[in-house]
Each structure stands twice: as structure tokens, then as C-alpha cells.
């Protein structure tokens, strides 16, 4: 799951659960049945987990684009850092 | 949210938090129910009235109990526990309560009822104070909700009097 997919999954999870909770409570209250509320909400939780927990393809539509390795070789790291680290090692030995 | 386990955990936690909130609101919604229960108890007769060997008065009586407790039921009510208590005053105690009969009402359909019954539990005084004693019969009820706080109330029916003599 990519970054955008994670954001999407979290948003969907919260929205779906709240919507199911509101629908379940309203139905249960109007029908006067606590059991109905619990069943609708339980169904909602199962549905939400099926939608947001598995790594579905639509959570992977924004893959990260890493630089090609050859591109990195053409632009090596600045030399100064390497020198500085060598100096430190020497100083620590002495 | 990067792995299966993290997402499952986040979902379960959030789902249970909402569930707790729904239960709290359901319990709160009971406050909008204003019940108007009614009940009558008549004493059909005193079956017998005697002094035990060690001196305590004991009485047996038959009651007619008529009650309509349907308005106590809401969508969040699991059951009602009701009991009839005889309440009277004696020189030792300002309030004596003796439970005579009880019942569990599991559903609204059974909350409107009529029953003729002798006292289910023995009516014994702590002493010998019952002759000619005025007493109340009180219908107590405890409402047991599916979620939330249990609450109780009662209806007092007064003006009953014990027989003057043992028999």
C-alpha cells in the first residue's frame, strides 16, 4: 500500500464506521430494537474491514518513483563528507 | 496504516470506541422516556395469623396484584425486576420491609398483568407487633437496561390493616 493508499484507507475506515454507526443507531432507535442496531453495526464493521484492511489494488495507484541506480552514479555524493569522516577516524585512533 | 496488522488494529479500536459511544447515547436516550406505571394491590384475605413458638408474629395473606408497567420499557430495557414489600413501623424500627412476592418481567408484552397469589416469601415480624397493625404494600421495581445504569422506583399503596387477633 502506497502513501496515498494509506491516507485513503484511513479516511474510508473512519467515514464508513461513522456512517454505519449513525444509520444503525437511527434504525435501532426508530424500530425500538437494540438488537437491530447491533446487527447493522456489526455488519458495518465487517464490511469496513473487508474494504480497508486488505491491500486492494486501488490503494496502490500512486507508486513511489525511485531514481534509477545509474542516475545516482552520475551524481555522486559531495566529497567533503567523506574527507570529514576520514579525519574523524584518524583523530579517534590517535 | 502501512500493514495489514496496523490497519486491522486501527479499525478495531475505532469501531469499539464508536460502539461505546453508541451504548452511552442509547443509555442517555432512556431519559426521554417518562413512564406512567400504575398498580393496584388488594388483599383478598388473611389466610392465617399466628404467633410462632419463639414469639414472632407470622401472617399468611392472599393478594390481587394488578399492574401496568409497560411504559417502563424502552428499546434499551432488558427486563424488570419487581417485588411487593409490606412496610410498617414498630417501636424498634421506624421502617420494616418484608418482601412478600417478586417476579421478573422479561418483555413489554408481559408487563400488563393480573395475578392472585399468596405471599411467596414468609411474612414474619421481628417480634409481636402485627396485631391490628396498619401497613403499606409497596410495589418496587428495578429497571435493568441493556446498557447503562440500572434504576429503581416504587408505588406505595397504603391503608391496609392486620387482623386484631391471632387465628
From TrEMBL, chain A:
It comes from the Eukaryota. This is Uncharacterized protein.
UniProtKB/TrEMBL annotation, chain B:
It is a single-pass type II membrane protein. Keywords: Endoplasmic reticulum, Membrane, Signal, Signal-anchor, Transmembrane, Transmembrane helix. GO terms for biological process: protein targeting to ER; signal peptide processing. The keyword Transmembrane applies. Residues 1-26 form the signal peptide. Pfam families: SPC22. It is found in: Endoplasmic reticulum membrane. Essential component of the signal peptidase complex (SPC) which catalyzes the cleavage of N-terminal signal sequences from nascent proteins as they are translocated into the lumen of the endoplasmic reticulum. Essential for the SPC catalytic activity, possibly by stabilizing and positioning the active center of the complex close to the lumenal surface. This is Signal peptidase complex subunit 3. It comes from Populus trichocarpa.
Amino acid at each position: 500500500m502506497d502513501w496515498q493508499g494509506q491516507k485513503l484507507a484511513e479516511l474510508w475506515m473512519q467515514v464508513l464506521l461513522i456512517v454505519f454507526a449513525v444509520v444503525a443507531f437511527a434504525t435501532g432507535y426508530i424500530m425500538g430494537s437494540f438488537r437491530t442496531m447491533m446487527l447493522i453495526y456489526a455488519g458495518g464493521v465487517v464490511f469496513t474491514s473487508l474494504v480497508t484492511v486488505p491491500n486492494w489494488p486501488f490503494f496502490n495507484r500512486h507508486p513511489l518513483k525511485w531514481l534509477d541506480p545509474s542516475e545516482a552514479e552520475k551524481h555522486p555524493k559531495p566529497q567533503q563528507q567523506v574527507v570529514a569522516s576520514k579525519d574523524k577516524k584518524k583523530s579517534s585512533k590517535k | 496504516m502501512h500493514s495489514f496488522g496496523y490497519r486491522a488494529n486501527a479499525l478495531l479500536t475505532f469501531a469499539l470506541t464508536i460502539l461505546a459511544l453508541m451504548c452511552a447515547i442509547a443509555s442517555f436516550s432512556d431519559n426521554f422516556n417518562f413512564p406512567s406505571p400504575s398498580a393496584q394491590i388488594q388483599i383478598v384475605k388473611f389466610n392465617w395469623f399466628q404467633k410462632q413458638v419463639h414469639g414472632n408474629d407470622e401472617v399468611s395473606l392472599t393478594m390481587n396484584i394488578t399492574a401496568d408497567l409497560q411504559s417502563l420499557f424502552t428499546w434499551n430495557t432488558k427486563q424488570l425486576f419487581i417485588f411487593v414489600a409490606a412496610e410498617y413501623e414498630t417501636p424498634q424500627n421506624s421502617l420494616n420491609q418484608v418482601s412478600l412476592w417478586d417476579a421478573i418481567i422479561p418483555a413489554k408484552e408481559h408487563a400488563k398483568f393480573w395475578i392472585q397469589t399468596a405471599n411467596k416469601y414468609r411474612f414474619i415480624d421481628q417480634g409481636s407487633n402485627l396485631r391490628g397493625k396498619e401497613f403499606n404494600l409497596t410495589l418496587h421495581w428495578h429497571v435493568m437496561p441493556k446498557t447503562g445504569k440500572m434504576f429503581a422506583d416504587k408505588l406505595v399503596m397504603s391503608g391496609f390493616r392486620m387482623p386484631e387477633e391471632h387465628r
